[in-house]
């Protein structure tokens, strides 16, 4: 009888050890999955910024050609639009983040 109880205790001990190892392995697996997901997000963000850089270069090239052509009306419209956008952003952000003076 005593030998059977001893074997049962050993089996329970080994089962507990195995359970702990499986839990640790599960934790490592979840960490690997999280890292892979965040790496995918970083890759997507990098591609987005790369695409945006290419578009900005194209826009700058078109703007340079327009300015070189000497179309003064188009240049004045562009300058006006830039000034209006700057003022709207400046006062909008000042209103949102600056609040009023106390």
From TrEMBL:
Looking at the UniProt entry, the stretches that span the membrane are: 74-93
Keyword flag S-adenosyl-L-methionine: no
What topology does it adopt in the membrane? Single-pass type IV membrane protein
Q: Which domain of life is it from?
A: Eukaryota
Record's subcellular location: Endomembrane system; Golgi apparatus membrane
Keyword Endoplasmic reticulum, does the record have it? Answer: no
Q: CDD domains, from UniProt?
A: SNARE_Bet1
Provide one Gene Ontology cellular component: Golgi membrane
- Kindly state a single biological-process term from the GO annotations of this entry: protein transport
- Its predominant location is membrane
Keywords from the UniProt entry = Golgi apparatus, Membrane, Protein transport, Transmembrane, Transmembrane helix, Transport
**PANTHER family in alphabetical order:** GOLGI SNARE BET1-RELATED (PTHR12791)
From the Swiss-Prot or TrEMBL record, give the protein name. Protein transport protein-like protein
Task: Record the organism.
Answer: Emericellopsis cladophorae
High-level lineage: Eukaryota, Fungi, Dikarya, Ascomycota, Pezizomycotina
